[in-house]
Amino acid sequence: MTHPLQAFRDRVERALTPFTLWSWKVGKERIRVHFLGEGHELKRFFLEETGTVAVLAELYVIIGGESPELPPRGSVKMLGTEDWVAVYHQGGEEAYVWLKSLDNVAAWGPETPLHVPLGWIAEQWGYALAHASAFGKDGKVALIVGPPGVGKSTLAVRAAIRGFEYYGDDRVLVEEWGYQVHAVFSSAKCFLKDITPEHAKFDTGLVVRDKAILEIPVCHKAGAIMAVVVPTKRPDHHPVGHGTVLWNSSRARALRALAPSSMLQLPGLGRRSLDAFSKVVQGSIPFELLWGSDVDLAIDRIAELF
Amino acid sequence: MRSLRLKSGTEVSTVDRETLVISFADGHYYAITGVGSDLLATLANGPLSLEYVVASFMAHFEKKADEIVKFVSESAFLETGEFEGEERLVRWSLPYLEPKVTTHAELADILVLDPIHDAGPAGWPSR
After folding, report:
1. Whether the Cβ atoms of residue A164 and residue A303 lie closer than 8 Å to each other
2. What's the ipTM?
3. Do the beta carbons of residue A95 and residue A120 sit within 8 Å?
4. Which segment, A188-202, A227-241, B17-31, is predicted with the most confidence on average?
5. Which residues of chain B make contact with A81, given a CB cutoff of 8 A?
């Protein structure tokens, strides 16, 4: 039987496959992650590619034991609960996540605390971690933004099933100059009640609360943001497809849907991220989508933009 | 002279004469339109003299001071204090549009879910 820490590490590896940061100074780079756990050090530099890899930041994942005492060095960001703590030393290019136990971390992805330091590191390197999903065609991407429950995950996962390019669910990176979206996680989530036989090929068998964790095997790394779509879901009792409408919105409306939920869910992001979100909505076309129970019709409306 | 400034723990962005203010102190965010957006777009770059704000508002729009004073006093994300530094121009736009503030509190619970640890004097959240 696979050791729980090994299984966790394997999930992290799979889910983080698309994650890349681009540094203009040193080229395409990644964050090196170290797993330290339960008394015996499990260290593996799992994101190293062949050849020389310069490391933008070291992320230490510490599992079990007491929350580590970390000496303050430079500017520090910290966030956490009794079950986990995330720490980032700005300038030191080191981040730590302490997890009390793997029992509190059901799966990799936005559901875990590990996205917190990733967001902080990304901001330092010119990216903003957005609360959004994204799908597209031929490298042209629609960013789906808004508060929980409007259908971001449902639309992106269904689009992936239909063969559209998948760029991420719930958390994606946008460049600070606002033109491109970058994938972070290949994982996605879907309400258990919405699982269909078509979702089976993506299902990991993992469940977090009332959501199944999926793995999208083909996750595109980056695309150009063409549109920012703010969905609103009609109540379930509406007739199928009735009133599915996509129309031009205001850039201010798109910013209201994108920035607060991204930044309040990840305190510590600052003006640099807000400026990035502002550039995203100013460099793309904002839309509102009113949709009902026919997810395919909603996707068709968005796909007309590509 | 009194200064007018954004409260600490807020971030501001202006698009198309609408300013978004995100408050990390209470998890609220605000959408401000009209001349209120003009004022906040300038305040995003640092404090202003309150007396100057009022005087320039009255001169630019030929309006009574009450209208901008009411906006300032009722805005939860603004505060006043001792003014230090140099005067800066407020980029008032035309036409005059009454300042309106829409408060959104639906995301405030997120901060309750993620209690913030003290990061010490040099680090966040004391940005």
Report:
1. yes
2. 0.83
3. yes
4. B17-31
5. 114-115
What angle, rounded to 10 degrees, do the helices at A271-282 and A251-264 form?
150
Contact between chains at A274 and B110 (C-beta distance less than 8 A): no
Q: Which amino acid is located at B52 in the chain?
A: Y
- To the question of pTM greater than 0.95 for the whole model, the response is no
Q: Which of A258-262, B1-5, B110-114 has the lowest mean pLDDT?
A: B110-114
Contacting B with CB below 8 Å, chain A residues are 72, 74-81, 85, 90, 147, 250-252, 255-256, 259-261, 263-265, 267-268, 270-271, 274-275, 277-278, 281-282
- Which residue of A123, A256, A258, A284 is the best one to mutate when testing the B interface, meaning the one whose CB has the most B CBs within 10 A? A256
Report yes or no: B121 at the A interface, CB cutoff 8 Å: no
How many angstroms separate the CA of residue A163 from the nearest CA in chain B?
33
Segment A208-227, tens digit of pLDDT: 777 888 888 888 888 999 99
Give the separation between CA B52 and CA A213, rounded to whole angstroms.
Answer: 56
In whole angstroms, how far apart are CA A227 and each of A130, A143, A300, B15? 15, 6, 14, 16
Distance in angstroms (rounded) separating the CA atoms of residues A268 and B109:
16
Nearest alpha carbon to residue A44 among A29, A34, A55, A53: A34
